[in-house]
Amino acid sequence: QVQLVESGGGLVQAGGSLTLSCASSGSIFSISTMGWYRQAPGKQRELVATITSGATTNYEDSVKGRFTISRDNAKNTVYLQMNSLKPEDTAVYYCNLHRTWPMNKDYWGQGTQVTVSS
Asked: What letter does residue 113 receive in the DSSP assignment?
């Protein structure tokens, strides 16, 4: 069974930085695609960034150049470095593990709140 535990959220002023961490239990972290998603009040959950097992990254357009996703397979941890934060980045951020073997399955963390004040 996989459990994901996020940390690092909080309140920050516009222009500031935060780093989110997500630690995974289990043995499939290194072969899985990891992602960060976010959900603002009244909006659907949206993709922020993903990183494959081979460290290929993908970003939602609004965070390109400001956010960086990375992973440490030795620590079973994925990170999201967020710089130049904007009030519109305010949301609950969720960690996701996507496995494809032996079946497609998604696992989610409990979420961590990020609030950016103007």
From this structure: E
